[in-house]
Amino acid sequence: MKKLIILLILLVSSISFSKTCNWIKDPNIYVTKEIELIGRSRLKGNVYCDVERDFMTYYLGLDNLEVGLVYNIRERRELSYENIFKILIDFENDIAKLIPTNIPKKDEKKKPRYYTFRLYVYDAAKKDTFMLFKYILDTNKIDGDWKTYYNNEIFSKTSEQMRKTLKDSGYSPTEDIIY
Asked: Alpha-carbon distance 162 to 115, whole Å?
């Protein structure tokens, strides 16, 4: 009986261990600074865990640091337009806290040109998480320049009016989806 209990404990602990997400190994100074901002802003619980079980806070390509934030995991609200709008406001407030203002002067010159922030949302009805929006900050512009995108695959299933509203609000469609 004792062996069975120990075996069950090991099995449960290995299952829960395999579902954990980790920060990338050997992050450079810019990723480290972004992780610090996430910690100070108390957003670690919102960082998206990708398919490789890494928290999405890492370089992708050249000169592009990616951060993914996920919403509606705890609340599990219906994804009505009203709730999506509330999530979008939370996302914009959260990424404002993650703008890299903590880079030392000596490292400013080599900081990433682009900071890409992806908004992931949990859909309780489908029991799945997907990317809704992507915001890209170009740090080479004097006051920063934002490009905003919506997931074309998701929003192509909505009304023409919805896509027009997104376009009129400055959003462009994207197929650049990462999970």
From this structure: 27
Burial of residue 121 (number of CB atoms within 10 Å: 0-12, 13-18, 19+)? buried
20-68: per-residue pLDDT in tens? 999 999 998 899 999 999 999 999 999 999 999 999 999 887 889 999 9
Where do runs of H (alpha helix) occur along the chain?
2-18, 29-40, 81-97, 105-108, 152-155, 160-168
Integer Cα distance of 150 and 173 in angstroms: 5
Pairing of strands 128-138, 145-151: antiparallel
Q: What kind and span of H or E run contains 103?
A: none
Burial code (b: 16+ CB inside 10 Å, e: under 16) for 15-48 equals eeeeeeeeeeeeeeebbebbbebbeeeebeebbb
pTM for this predicted structure? 0.83
**CA 91 – CA 155 distance, rounded (Å):** 18
**Contacts of 155-163 spanning 24+ positions with Cβ under 8 A:** 162/81
Which two structure tokens, joined as six digits, stand for 63? Answer: 């000169």
The residues spanned by each domain of the chain are 21-174
